[in-house]
Design goal:
Number of strands: 12
CATH topology: VC0467-like
Distance between the termini: 6 Å
Shape: globular
Order of helices and strands: EEEEEEHEEEEHEHEHHH
Largest sheet: 10 strands, mixed
CATH architecture: 3-Layer(aba) Sandwich
Radius of gyration: 19 Å
CATH superfamily: VC0467-like
Strand content: 25-35%
Number of helices: 6
């Protein structure tokens, strides 16, 4: 347990942090396409523990996103015969329909892709993608594949935000998504928010170790 005390307001380990207003937050950034959902440090749901979820759609019909930092033990080439040239790990996008394949990427010439952020896309023409991979027209490091997705029905995400299950970030970037080690992504995304979230990023995964 931590709290602030003394002239330097340094961290001590003897007073319960839940009594402090400092550690309460309210989401000021609203969820929308292209934003991140960062799970609060001790979210009990094992599907989303220490997860960074990229929202690819958010509207009155619900929300869709993909967990960016949960790699599986399988390689893309082991799952998809058409993608033998991609040896990178496939990620678990969420608990919904884990028998389906999805991808986000940085290929601006892929037909039917949905732009999430400038230079960042969701899905597109799969046959064209396979051809571009086979002919080495694209870098396989510019594509991230997922089994399943994360989904919320209308109003469900809003309720989860009310109970502070998620912290919304508008600081998604290509560097975070494609160039950050999955094991460090949640901490990095939290630190980039600054302030109290830097402290959150250093919370131990097991609160008993505090």
């Amino acid at each position: 347990m931590n709290y602030f005390h003394g002239k330097n307001r340094r961290l001590s380990r003897f007073v319960i942090i839940s009594d402090m207003d400092f550690f309460k937050y309210a989401n000021k950034v609203l969820p929308q396409r292209g934003r991140l959902l960062l799970s609060e440090p001790y979210l009990a749901d094992p599907n989303f523990e220490r997860s960074a979820v990229l929202l690819t759609d958010h509207n009155d019909l619900g929300s869709v996103g993909f967990i960016l930092n949960k790699p599986s033990e399988s390689r893309v080439s082991e799952i998809m015969n058409d993608l033998k040239g991609i040896d990178s790990r496939i990620f678990i996008g969420g608990p919904v329909e884990q028998d389906t394949l999805h991808f986000i990427h940085r290929i601006d010439s892929l037909a039917d892709a949905i732009e999430i952020l400038p230079g960042l896309y969701w899905g597109g023409n799969f046959d064209q993608l396979v051809s571009m991979v086979d002919t080495q027209q694209v870098l396989t490091t510019d594509i991230k594949f997922f089994l399943g997705y994360s989904g919320w029905s209308p109003g469900q995400l809003a309720e989860e935000l009310k109970i502070e299950s998620w912290i919304v970030s508008d600081m998604a970037s290509e560097q975070l998504i494609f160039e950050t080690d999955p094991g460090q992504m949640w901490k990095r995304a939290m630190r980039e928010l600054g302030g109290r979230f830097t402290i959150y990023s250093n919370y131990p995964e097991d609160p008993r170790m505090n």
